[in-house]
Design a protein that fits this description.
Length: about 450
């Protein structure tokens, strides 16, 4: 029986017919998957992916903004198969360990030396990395004798993955509602969202207002009850919100003033996407804990990591019954994932992908601004290769087009027809291609968007 099913993976008709029949897809109503079956990707190379019919498509989202070095890189495939010949898998619980995970922990702390990171805890993805960060924060405060510091503060529109802890600090209503009640003691403050905020159109003023809001919330809760503030250096899934330049430096100051740990969720921004090696480095800020995943090995094998600075790690020097890290996964430090990461990060550094993300991203943003002449385009924004086009029903009122409205899905369909696969997130088009994207790819994408927007009208 199993043999038959293994063969069906190679049977195009079976795949096309059964795609949405038995598999639930994340982040969609299963009825919708059945009505419009998802695009099946069968093959990939560089910045291109290929669907079931063999159509070659530009991957404008680097899968989920994680295939940073591009698809089908021989260096990474070689590293994985070499490792496979030695040791496919062994765990890192207790006293067990394996060479690639040890090497990667040394590389990561070296890459994060400027931030003072001294330890990493491996996991299987971004949600895991966030979970580790939250639990480590609480354990840290217990070890230093401040067990009451347990609350977490975060931003509205934040996305910190889907585990109960992560979703409790996430600020998007759709991710929360079906799973409430969530973790108690989590509170969100307003996000520094320049396009939509009740206060000001001046970035510096907005940064000051939002940082002051954090300080007020900490005072309201009582600093002695707050463990950490967590945020993405650029908010991703919640809307591609680039904060004003003064925001992160100001929140670092606020966290220091009230003795609160600062957690940077760098799952998207880590390893070059914003044009800097790390998103918080772009703002000149050193967090206490950093959550890493996605770009860490460009998705070749699932991997996440939580990095901790010397100050936080210092708490574990205490002789305490609470010192054991009672957190970690069967796949923490998976040898194949770590070997893939070692090869991936070599490419990121050798090819200066942060540099390319910065320059190609700037060019991309400039060309996307052309789209602001269309009535439905309210805002175009981004940093590095993390860009978004936000759609509205009316430019003056800024009323958002309903999430996944047929108009947006039609834009996506036309782009697909012209050879570009793009992601729609609520009322936004997300552009987050592999960091090896070049100007001619950008021109191709923007030309296709002109075609789509030129022939479609909202309403
Ligand atoms: C994707 C993402 C996560 C969750 O990562 P998974 O690997 O999907 O669990 C967490 N935080 C941010 C900022 C993300 O973009």
């Amino acid at each position: 029986m199993t043999e038959t099913y293994r063969e069906t993976a190679a049977d195009a008709n079976f795949i096309a017919e059964n795609n949405a029949r038995h598999m639930w897809h994340p982040m969609v109503d299963p009825k919708k998957s059945a009505e419009t079956p998802p695009t099946v990707i069968c093959k990939s190379d560089g910045v291109y992916i290929f669907d079931l019919d063999g159509n070659k498509l530009l991957d404008c989202s680097a899968s989920l903004w994680n295939v940073n070095v591009g698809h089908n890189r021989p260096e990474i495939k070689q590293a994985i198969t070499d490792q496979l010949d030695q040791l496919a898998y062994y765990n890192t619980f207790g006293n067990a360990s394996n060479p690639p995970s040890i090497a990667l922990s040394a590389l990561l702390t070296d890459m994060l030396a400027d931030e003072g990171m001294t330890k990493v805890l491996f996991s299987s993805g971004g949600s895991d990395a966030v979970e580790g960060a939250l639990k480590i924060s609480r354990q840290h405060w217990k070890l230093v004798g401040k067990p009451e510091k347990t609350k977490f503060l975060s931003l509205k529109y934040a996305y910190h993955g889907v585990h109960f802890g992560g979703v409790s600090v996430s600020g998007g209503i759709p991710w929360r509602r079906s799973y409430e009640p969530l973790l108690p003691g989590c509170f969100q403050i307003d996000s520094p969202y320049l396009y939509r905020n009740p206060w000001t159109g001046d970035p510096d003023e907005l940064g000051e207002i939002c940082a002051a809001n954090l300080a007020r919330e900490i005072e309201h809760q009582g600093a002695d009850t707050v463990a950490a503030f967590i945020a993405e250096p650029v908010q991703g899934a919640g809307g591609m919100i680039v904060p004003p330049a003064n925001f992160w430096p100001l929140i670092r100051e606020v966290c220091d003033r009230y003795d609160i740990l600062l957690i940077a969720d760098e799952v998207v921004t880590g390893f070059g996407r914003t044009g800097s090696m790390f998103g918080s480095r772009h703002w000149g800020v050193k967090p206490d804990i950093m959550c890493l995943a996605k770009g860490i090995n460009s998705g070749y094998v699932p991997l996440g990591a939580t990095a901790v600075n010397g100050r936080v790690a210092g708490a574990w020097e205490a002789d305490s019954a609470l010192a054991p890290l009672m957190h970690g996964y069967t796949y923490s430090g998976h040898p194949l994932a770590c070997a893939a990461a070692l090869a991936n990060l070599q490419i990121v550094v050798d090819e200066d992908l942060p540099g390319n993300a910065g320059s190609t991203g700037e060019y991309f943003l400039g060309r996307l601004k052309e789209l602001e002449t269309y009535d439905s385009v309210g805002d175009v924004r981004g940093l590095g290769l993390m860009l978004a086009v936000e759609f509205v029903t009316d430019k003056k009122t800024k009323e958002a087009i309903a999430p996944f409205h047929p108009y947006l899905m039609e834009i996506q369909r036309i782009c697909l027809e012209h050879g570009a696969f793009m992601r729609i997130q609520a009322n936004k088009l997300i552009l987050s291609p592999p960091l090896v994207f070049q100007k001619d790819h950008v021109d191709n994408v923007v030309d296709i968007l002109h075609t789509a927007l030129g022939q479609l009208k909202y309403g």
